[in-house]
Amino acid sequence: MLKILKYSFYDLIRSRWSYVYFLFYLLLGFVLLFLNNDVSKAIITLMNVIIILVPLISTIFGIMYFYNSKEFTELLLAQPIKRSSIFLGQYLGVAGSLTLSLVLGLGIPFVLYGLFKSDAIFDFSLLLVTGAFLTLIFTVLAFNIALSNENKIKGFGYAVLLWLFMAVIYDGLFLMSLIIFKEYPLDAFSLSATMFNPIDLSRTLILLKLDISALLGYTGAVFKKFFGTDQGLFVSMLMLILWTVLPIWRLVYVSKKKDF
Amino acid sequence: MMRYQSLLNFTFLLFVTAHLWAKPIVICESCEIKSISEGIDRAIDFDTLIVKKGTYKEFNILVDKPLTLIGEGYPIIDGEKKGEIMRIVSDGVTIDGFFIINVGTSYTTDYAAIRVVKSENFLIQNVVLEKLFFGIYLEKSNYGKVYHNKIIGDAKDEYNSGNGIQLWYSHHVEVSNNIVQGARDGIYLEFSDNITIDNNKSTNNLRYGLHFMFSDDDVYTNNLFENNGAGVAVMFSKGIIMKGNTFRKNWGTASFGVLLKEINDAEISNNTFEENTIGINIEGSNRINYKGNNFINNGWGIKVLGACYANAFTGNNFLYNSFDISYDSKLNDNVFDGNYWSGYTGYDLDKNGIGDVPYRPVKLFSYIVNKTPEAIVLLRSLFMDIIDFSEKVSPVFTPDNLLDINPLMTKVQ
């Protein structure tokens, strides 16, 4: 598995898209810091970009990579290698290189602008951790879609739909249900609804860490009480890990049974 | 006649001053008179008492004659938490230069460091108060001045702490250049008209920096209210003028820069509201002119609740607030004209400094949040940006006449 991981990883590291992705974040980080020169303000702006772009790019990139390397995968399948190591290796290669681009691309400008001297270091690391998780989650979801759909067009369609659902439609449904059931106490509901969408969960986690949380009023106080504690942070991290592990398990399970 | 009068005045003044300077009563630890109460007993009207440096363990000092009490080198009056420290019940009293500590705490009586009762023409200045319950308490006392005092409380809970400077049924008083911190309410006024509050700094108070009710025709200028529990609350008053004040960092789930409730015919101009959860929270306030204010980095710049009619917002700067304006009804009777909005994305083709496209300051999201407060958890999500954009293009839910027809292209200086 490690060999395949290494191969995929180096293949991607050498490819143009990784560089473009890396340079994009590098540029974004520098521009943001150049424009307002305040590390903690830049983190808020960055959050907006991360929770939208990271899932989108991970999804598209993951599905593209899977379809592109299909012939190579079939070649590997003919060899006496465990199926799980082939797919896991490829997945970790893609997700690893994307995460590396993200962490380095954003890390370098922030470190240069004095991240270690500012007290925003915890917020920033939380941002990077959630960014990394979002990469892992959406890449593996994309791999799952690609594995289940031989038809490329269909696969792409589903992948984009998945992103659209998580980033936009889910919030729309969430809001609708809030408005429809506004006569009822909705704190527990909104808390759990947030938990079941990795994008919402990441957004809430970062928002509450920043001092913007005072805006959230009474609901915010309930949220803060939950997410602000170590237990809340632990539960949300657990949710993110579940979101990563369950699709990986499905990837392995389906790939074992699939007839190529 | 006039000449005779002024001559008479002059001789009178000469007599009074000669009298004053002739017999200043000196109080010190090694003098004949060792306590302030004793000094007051011995003094006659219009005497001056000079209190030398030292510690005086006294409480319930009753000033019942028109006297001038001057502390030299900030003598300490230690009430030892036994009750009220100084009570003034005579007109024309001056208190100058004392350091008063340890006012008693009570759940039934409002013990104060200095209480002025039914007296006029008083002057309280250069007094430092620490470890207090109530600080300076003016009760039915008019035409006085509270100037350049420093009040430092250590209030922990609202129920067992008092206010820094409190005015109750007192008119025509000037409160200026004071520093109040760590009290329950920094400055508190009730039923007090024609008051001038100028150049005070009210910070880190437990509840409100400034709190007034039923107090008409008061003027508030150049004060700083920072980091108070809930900001500044002004209620049930008319004819208020607020100019050049700064309201900063009132940041918390139930905090605001200013809460206006039932305030009518007021003028609020050239104030700065910075980093408050809500800049101004307006409820049932009519005919107010908001002019030349700066709203910077607030959660909500202005939150309008309930019936607010005929207010005018002109020439204000709204800079980087999460929501500039929030409305809870579809009806609008207020005028927004010629403000600068940092969120404005229009253009100015004829280069006259006024944007050619009207600006709609109420976002759909702020409307939704008013209806269902839980929806705030969707703050900064892509979905909200999308529906805000579509609402901006064709308003359906927000009041369609709520717009600034002449949004400025550059900041108001």
Q: N- to C-terminal separation of chain B?
A: 54 Å
What is the general shape of chain B? elongated
Mean pLDDT over the full residue set of chain B = 89
Main β sheet profile of chain B: 14 strands, parallel
Poorly predicted spans of chain A:
none
Specify the overall morphology of chain A: globular
CATH-derived topology of the largest domain in chain B:
Pectate Lyase C-like
Note the run of SSEs of chain A as H and E. Answer: HHHHHHHHHHH
Layout of strands and helices, then pairs:
The complex is a heterodimer of chains A (260) and B (413).
Chain A: H1 2-14, H2 16-36, H3 39-68, H4 70-77, H5 83-112, H6 121-148, H7 152-180, H8 187-195, H9 198-209, H10 217-227, H11 230-257
Helix pairs in contact in A: 1-5, 2-3, 2-5, 3-5, 3-6, 3-7, 3-9, 5-6, 5-11, 6-7, 6-9, 6-11
Chain B: H1 2-22, E1 25-27, H2 36-42, E2 48-51, E3 55-56, E4 61-63, E5 68-71, E6 76-78, E7 86-88, E8 94-96, E9 99-101, E10 112-117, E11 123-125, E12 128-130, E13 134-139, E14 145-147, E15 150-152, E16 165-168, E17 174-176, E18 179-181, E19 187-190, E20 196-198, E21 201-203, E22 208-213, E23 219-221, E24 224-226, E25 231-238, E26 241-243, E27 246-248, E28 258-264, E29 267-269, E30 272-274, E31 278-283, E32 289-291, E33 294-296, E34 300-305, E35 312-314, E36 317-319, E37 323-327, E38 335-337, E39 340-341, H3 364-371, H4 382-393
Parallel strand pairs in B: 1-2, 2-5, 3-6, 4-7, 5-8, 6-9, 7-10, 8-11, 9-12, 10-13, 11-14, 12-15, 13-16, 14-17, 15-18, 16-19, 17-20, 18-21, 19-22, 20-23, 21-24, 22-25, 23-26, 24-27, 25-28, 26-29, 27-30, 28-31, 29-32, 30-33, 31-34, 32-35, 33-36, 34-37, 35-38, 36-39
